[in-house]
Specification:
By secondary structure, the protein is an alpha+beta fold. The protein contains 7 helices and 7 strands, in the order αααβαββαββααββ. 58% of the residues lie in helices and 15% in strands.
Length: 299
């Protein structure tokens, strides 16, 4: 009889141990879930974690999440400082750049020797390059830090194509390049201003690198989930080993070193595409021109 009593007590103790263990495991899981949720929301209150009460796993996770949160805050502060620095530099250089442009124009109007005239034109070209660089850096840094927000809405793509083409039509005609709009259909969800900026960057490259007598074509069409804006040119093309790097900031390929530009346009275009839930890709080969495809979400 005592054996049965002892066995029953043992089973009861075992059941109680299992129940307590399950409750403790459930509490730990709830605690871990709460830590992760607060960490994801940036609301991890490190003063609420008492290591004398927490399990070893909870304690280690709390320390890891606290360190991660500190790293994220430090990274944000560094980005904010960089953005502020770029904005300050841009503001402080605006007046000197404007003066340089003015004086270089006045200099070109003076009776100069051929060598001096070439120097004046070089000063003017480098001033324009500096102005473009500062403008692109400010836009890129503000997009990265969220200071410039995008406001995508459902709208037709054709007006954006026409506005962008009109801006580059004089430059294309000046080089004897045929700039045209092909099939232009469909709607997508995008920010018209920033998408036009991205498209202008693609057109700028296309007109810049396409030789005299070449052609540049814009078109758009719908797919099931994305709408496509495409810029095609008959330029020299880009080697396969360079294609993955052309979207990197300041990258200048071998064929671009004798052309104007600072290597920020395609990087900014990719930022704009990704900021709207889209993406951009390149198809090219030496001697076959380039085809840039900008995909924008339809919903």
């Amino acid at each position: 009889m005592s054996g049965y009593i002892f066995g029953g007590a043992a089973l009861l103790l075992a059941a109680m141990f299992v129940l307590i263990s399950r409750r403790r495991s459930a509490r730990i899981m709830e605690s871990l879930d709460d830590m992760l949720t607060k960490a994801m929301e940036g609301k991890l209150p490190r003063e609420s974690f008492d290591e004398s009460r927490l399990s070893s796993l909870e304690s280690r996770l709390a320390r890891y999440l606290s360190a991660s949160q500190d790293s994220a805050l430090n990274l944000k502060e560094q980005r904010d400082r960089i953005n502020s620095l770029i904005s300050d530099i841009s503001h402080q250089t605006r007046t000197p750049v404007a003066n340089l442009k003015l004086y270089s124009q006045l200099l070109e109007e003076q009776p100069l020797s051929p060598q001096a005239r070439d120097c004046a034109r070089a000063i003017s070209a480098q001033t324009d390059k500096l102005e473009s660089l500062m403008d692109a850096l400010v836009k890129s840094s503000r997009l990265e830090t969220g200071m410039l927000a995008m406001h995508p809405e459902r709208q037709a793509m054709e007006p954006v194509l026409r506005r962008a083409a009109e801006q580059y039509l004089p430059k294309a005609r000046g080089k004897g390049i045929e700039l045209s709009i092909g099939e232009a259909e469909g709607e997508a969800v995008f920010d018209a201003k920033w998408t036009e900026e991205a498209l202008c960057n693609l057109l700028d490259n296309a007109v810049k690198y396409t030789p005299e007598g070449g052609r540049v074509t814009l078109s758009s069409r719908n797919f099931e989930m994305f709408s496509l804006i495409r810029v095609e040119d008959s330029g020299p093309g880009i080697a396969e080993e360079e294609q993955a790097r052309v979207f990197s900031r300041f990258y200048r390929g071998a064929s671009a070193r004798d052309k104007e530009g600072v290597g920020l346009g395609l990087s900014l275009t990719r930022q704009i595409a990704e900021g709207q839930g889209g993406y951009v890709k390149l198809d090219s080969a030496p001697g076959r021109g380039c085809r840039f495809s900008l995909y924008l979400p339809r919903e």
